[in-house]
Write a sequence for this structure.
């Protein structure tokens, strides 16, 4: 009898064979993997150019096995625009955190979406600046303690969290804008489907696509990994409701 | 090809197109706006990329992105816009990708005005952005010269994977004068081996300016420095006029150099042995030629449209061997040939030792001129 091995699970081809630098319990690894799996499934690896941000995922290019560039803080959508316009047949995506996308890079993300750039944005919203050690982000919840809002975010002084998916969905250039969460297996599956649809949007030249992913930061939130995931489910989803905010009708019939 | 009457900004843009620029990303700002307008009309019909960005910050980061694909890309702006671009310029330098930036300089600091100035000398020549890097800086003095050197700017950018600045001022951007455009160059379809265009059948290319280990950054800094030393050795360009028997050396670049050449001609007509050195590459500076001339001439007059920025570089090279004097107009004021001629005549009659800082003697003279002007 000949023994046969059936591979049911392996590293995506779009992943390099290295360990990440992310903290235990961080959802960046999950988000990375979903993107890599989608790129594998769509056969896009050899035509994809990724744009890494400044923030915890600054080294994203180490983990994706594809051409990558590294943007200045917040400028990934501009850099992606510059690339996509000279290589319109390539697949270009940015991977950005909330400080990068919703604070310093607000102009770049708004106008990339407004122009309907055929790029895909993976937006990691963990309500905090992770890389610099836990400062208040534009998405930090009201009352949430960070190192720069040590008494809790006082909305009288520091304003309110920004809902980027909702804001960007108002723009005519946006083809696909949704919010998903990475706090449990069911939501992770939904997140992957959304990432697939975002890349399908780009392949079909239907305009700007973004998937906002509610993510956890156990280290800077000072919570255990499981408590951090519970925090996403219980505290973040009421402020950042999951859902489809803009879906080009051409995508509605698409089965992925 | 025959000469045509061309507006500076239009001619520079067309020269870039003929040099094979495949993308222009910019933001409107006086006095460089016609550059962007020309590209907006011309590039789409050629199947090349044009985006009016939301800001100069975004524009230069679009340039950065396209530069990473190894395609010829540029932007054009004016002083305050260039300040905003300094972030991206530093990243481009740090990532070692080629790009061309044209600065049509205007009066400053701050919002300043829209009149021609050379007040960005330090910003352009000394780097301007953060970190250790060395931009190549070309300073043409006429529409024709700018047309000629914009093609070279792209060649140098590609050759050294470096940022190349072409600095002109509002005079040159706005004026119309006859110029002959070069023929259209073929665009190379071959990607440089470092470029990101999708990792088809090869290992991925990663383009970044991050070197988290200080030693790696130091190695990068050293590579940039050694490349700069090569550039200094190979790429110095300057023009000279009436220098063979000159006793008074006038040094000026761009518009002030061009005005100075008229003044030198007038000085010669008046029997004054003046000559002109006009650097085309401000970086690398024509240090060797200036050193030779220092042994020949009796006095040096530096003419600029700023407070004496190139003056500092000249003083560093001359090292007090010859008295150096300065004549500058600032704030968007262009000196007239007669003003510079008066200065040459004054300098030719001055046998004093020269001030430690030539600005000290210039300031009261300028104050008198301003008082008389107003």
């Amino acid at each position: 009898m000949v023994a046969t091995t059936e591979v049911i699970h392996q590293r995506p081809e779009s992943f390099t064979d290295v360990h990440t630098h992310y903290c235990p319990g961080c959802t960046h690894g999950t988000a990375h993997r979903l993107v890599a799996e989608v790129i594998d499934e769509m056969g896009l690896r050899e035509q994809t150019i990724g744009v890494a941000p400044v923030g915890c995922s600054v080294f994203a290019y180490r983990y994706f096995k594809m051409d990558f560039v590294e943007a200045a803080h917040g400028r990934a959508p501009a850099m992606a625009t510059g690339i996509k316009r000279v290589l319109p047949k390539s697949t270009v995506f940015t991977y950005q955190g909330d400080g990068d996308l919703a604070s310093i890079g607000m102009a770049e993300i708004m106008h990339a979406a407004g122009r309907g750039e055929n790029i895909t944005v993976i937006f990691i919203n963990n309500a905090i600046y992770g890389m610099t050690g836990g400062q208040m982000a534009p998405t930090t919840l009201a009352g949430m303690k960070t190192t720069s809002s040590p008494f809790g975010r006082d909305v009288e002084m520091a304003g309110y969290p920004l809902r980027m998916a909702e804001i960007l969905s108002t723009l005519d250039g946006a083809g696909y804008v949704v919010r998903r969460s990475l706090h449990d297996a069911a939501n992770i599956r939904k997140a992957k489907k959304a990432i697939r649809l975002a890349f399908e949007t780009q392949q079909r030249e239907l305009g700007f696509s973004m998937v906002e992913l509610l993510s956890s930061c156990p280290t800077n939130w000072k919570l255990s990994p499981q408590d951090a995931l519970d925090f996403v489910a219980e505290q973040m989803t009421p402020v950042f409701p999951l859902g489809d905010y803009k879906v080009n009708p051409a995508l509605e019939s698409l089965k992925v | 090809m025959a000469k045509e009457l061309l507006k500076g900004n239009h001619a520079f843009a067309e020269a870039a197109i003929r040099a094979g620029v495949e993308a222009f990303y910019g933001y409107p700002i006086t006095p460089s706006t016609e550059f962007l307008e020309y590209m907006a009309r011309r590039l789409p019909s050629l199947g090349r990329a044009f985006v009016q960005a939301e800001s100069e910050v975004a524009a230069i980061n679009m340039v950065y992105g396209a530069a990473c694909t190894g395609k010829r890309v540029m932007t054009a702006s004016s002083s305050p816009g260039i300040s905003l671009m300094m972030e991206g310029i530093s990243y481009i330098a740090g990532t070692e990708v080629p790009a061309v930036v044209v600065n049509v300089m205007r009066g400053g600091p701050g919002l300043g005005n829209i009149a021609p100035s050379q007040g960005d000398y330090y910003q352009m020549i000394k780097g301007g952005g953060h970190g250790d890097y060395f931009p190549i800086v070309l300073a043409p003095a006429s529409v024709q010269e700018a047309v000629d050197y914009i093609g070279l700017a792209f060649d140098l950018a590609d050759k050294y994977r470096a940022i190349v600045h072409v600095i002109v001022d509002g005079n040159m951007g706005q004026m119309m004068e006859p110029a002959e455009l070069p023929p259209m160059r073929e665009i190379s379809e071959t990607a440089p081996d470092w470029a990101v265009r999708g990792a088809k059948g090869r290992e991925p290319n990663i383009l970044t300016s991050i070197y988290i280990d200080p030693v790696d950054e130091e190695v990068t800094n050293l590579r940039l420095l050694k490349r700069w030393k090569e550039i200094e050795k190979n790429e110095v360009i300057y023009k000279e006029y009436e220098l063979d028997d000159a006793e008074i050396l006038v040094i000026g670049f761009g518009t002030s150099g061009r005005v100075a050449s008229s003044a030198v001609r007038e000085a010669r007509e008046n029997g004054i042995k003046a000559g002109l050195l006009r650097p085309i590459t401000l970086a690398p500076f024509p240090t060797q030629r200036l050193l030779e001339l220092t042994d020949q001439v009796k006095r040096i007059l530096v003419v600029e449209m700023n407070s004496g920025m190139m003056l500092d570089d000249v003083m560093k090279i001359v090292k007090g061997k010859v008295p150096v004097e300065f004549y500058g107009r600032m704030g968007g004021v262009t000196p007239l040939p007669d003003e510079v001629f008066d200065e040459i005549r004054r300098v030719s009659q001055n046998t004093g030792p020269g001030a430690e800082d030539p600005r000290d003697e210039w300031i009261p003279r300028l104050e008198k001129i301003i008082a008389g002007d107003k």
